[in-house]
# Entry
Amino acid sequence: MITDDILETILKAKAQEPITDFLDWPSMSLQLLARETVFPTPDEITANLHASCVQSGSRPNSRFSKGILERPYYLAFSEMIIKCFANGGLFPEDVVKSQVYMLEGVNVARLKEIEQRMIAMYNSWASISPPLAEKLSTLEDFLFKFLTPKDVNTFLGLRTTIGSAVYLPPSLNECVNAFTKIHTKSNVTEQSGGEQGSGSEGSIGDGESKRRKNKVNTLTVGAKAFSKHCHRDRSRNFWGTCTGTEKQKNEQANLVLAKIITNAAWINLHSLPVFKEGPIQN
# Structure
């Protein structure tokens, strides 16, 4: 009964209502419906990371296959709701349970409350088969009166704890573009020819300065962080190595990121201390 088109129609209607807060349902509806931010044509580095995510994905034909979602989010939201009702109103097992033992019981109480409401809806629809308009009204009450903004992230595959941000997460495209930005060396200062000395030594200095200035840096911020911290894994079994040319380091970092986001045992969302208000952006 629930389809992508039905959920899209319901959200579009809610999005037309006045927005009083960026976490109210009219605002959340707009965010769920929002299309992907238009970025420049992907370069080789970004395309490589996208390909790595596709290859690492464990759930084909699913909006959740790449670990981090792509916009518009309402499609993933719809997929999760459809899975729940196909399961009698229960969340899929991988949503309720965690691969990490210590996180097994986190947020279970709220998950049970949501399941009980969905089970009641499922049983009601199965027993009396109400008209479509009545089903839609029940679904709207469930979405806009029962669910909280933090619950939305549960349907997007995130787990929530005390302190979790209630904003929608950044998309895969936003994360990839942030990870593959070219690292800018902050400690490089340009020197003028007059400061290089004189004579032959000055000429050598000038030549070295020009070569450094003309060298194109291709190391990404993700690869830079990877090269800085991968040595902490002394076994090299988890992170692997980060060696070779800048291109090779970029590709090695991409593989590690793809491995993390497509095989995550737990995805949570927190904001940095400097973050005050408003939805999380790039």
The radius of gyration is 24 Å.
